[in-house]
Every structure is written in structure tokens, then in C-alpha cells.
């Protein structure tokens, strides 16, 4: 498996461990959680831990809205362009691997 960077490697490995754990212990009285839900929770937690999470209600504070598409919105602030991906097309962080 090829990783984009260390963050991508850590997040992917953490997700894969959690998904494997959830599949090994069915019937333990816990509600079923899909791999997609696990991925969402881990991704949010990882992003928050590393200062990469922007709450949806704060996205507009990134700058002036720029061109947007089906899966991405852009915001421009001074000399920075922010690209916000909602994963609508890919459906998963894990599917973004090169």
C-alpha cells in the first residue's frame, strides 16, 4: 500500500485496525457499527488531534468562496486557496489512495 504522507499512513493503519477489531467481536452486546462509520469517527478524531479539522459552520471563515464542484468547495484568503472535500464521489478516505 502506498501512502501520501505520514498522516495518511497513520490514519489508514488506525482505521484498518479498528475495522478489524469491530469484525472480530460481534455479539458482544454493542450496537453494530459499519466500517464506514468507524472510518468517519477515526478520520474526525485524527483530524482534530492534528489541528486539521474545520467544523462545517466555520468553513466560510476560510475566505471568499471560489469555484466549487460536486465534491469540492474552494475558499480564497489572501495568497492561500483552501480546498474542502466532502468525499461525495469517493465515499471514503481510504479510496483516496494513489
Description:
With 98 residues, this protein is α+β, with helices and mostly antiparallel strands. The chain has helices at residues 6-24, 35-49; strands spanning 64-68, 72-77, 80-85. Strands 1-2-3 form a 3-stranded antiparallel beta sheet, with no helix packed on it. A hairpin with a 3-residue loop joins strand 1 (64-68) and strand 2 (72-77). Helix 1 runs antiparallel to helix 2 (35-49). The longest helix has 19 residues, at 6-24.
List the main descriptive attributes of the protein structure presented here.
single chain, 98 residues, alpha+beta, 17% strand
Briefly, what is this?
The protein is α+β, with helices and mostly antiparallel strands and 98 residues long.
Please write out the topology.
Blueprint: H1 6-24, H2 35-49, E1 64-68, E2 72-77, E3 80-85
Antiparallel strand pairs: 1-2, 2-3
Radius of gyration: 16 Å
Q: How far is the first residue's CA from the last residue's CA?
A: 9 Å
N-to-C SSE string, H for helix and E for strand: HHEEE
Shape: elongated
Secondary structure tally, helices? 2
- Structural class assignment: alpha+beta
Q: Provide the β-strand percentage band.
A: 15-25%
Q: Low-confidence parts, pLDDT < 50 over ≥5 residues?
A: none
- Give the tally of β-strands: 3
Amino acid at each position: 500500500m502506498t501512502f501520501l504522507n505520514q498522516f495518511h499512513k497513520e490514519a489508514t493503519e488506525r482505521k484498518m485496525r479498528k475495522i478489524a477489531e469491530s469484525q472480530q467481536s460481534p455479539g458482544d452486546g454493542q450496537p453494530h457499527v459499519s466500517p464506514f462509520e468507524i472510518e468517519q469517527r477515526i478520520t474526525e478524531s485524527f483530524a482534530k488531534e492534528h489541528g486539521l479539522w474545520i467544523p462545517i459552520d466555520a468553513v466560510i471563515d476560510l475566505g471568499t468562496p471560489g469555484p466549487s464542484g460536486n465534491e469540492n468547495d474552494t475558499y480564497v484568503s489572501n495568497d492561500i486557496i483552501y480546498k474542502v472535500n466532502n468525499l461525495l464521489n469517493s465515499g471514503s478516505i481510504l479510496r483516496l489512495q494513489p
